[in-house]
Prior knowledge:
The protein is mostly beta strands. The chain has strands at 5-15, 25-32, 38-43, 47-51, 54-58, 60-62, 72-76, 82-86. The mean pLDDT is 91.
Amino acid sequence: MSKYGKFKALDVRECIDLTSFKRGYVIVIAERVGNNERCRFELYEGYQDSFLGTNKYYGYQGQWNMIVPGDVFEIEETNTYDRVTIL
């Protein structure tokens, strides 16, 4: 299953990880638009990790923290952080 495409949010939960220095994140249970496949996303603020001159990007940019149940949103792949857009 690809994590990219258009999805409809069914349930949204905001979580805070108290065991690490990580900020809060959002868990979204969604249904892929078009084929009704259900999936789960953990959306969190993007951060960069560098190792031996190679940069890796984790997390998301965009409107990921504004999703509410019923929203249709799109996750797009970029060269850095994946982008979330509410449609």
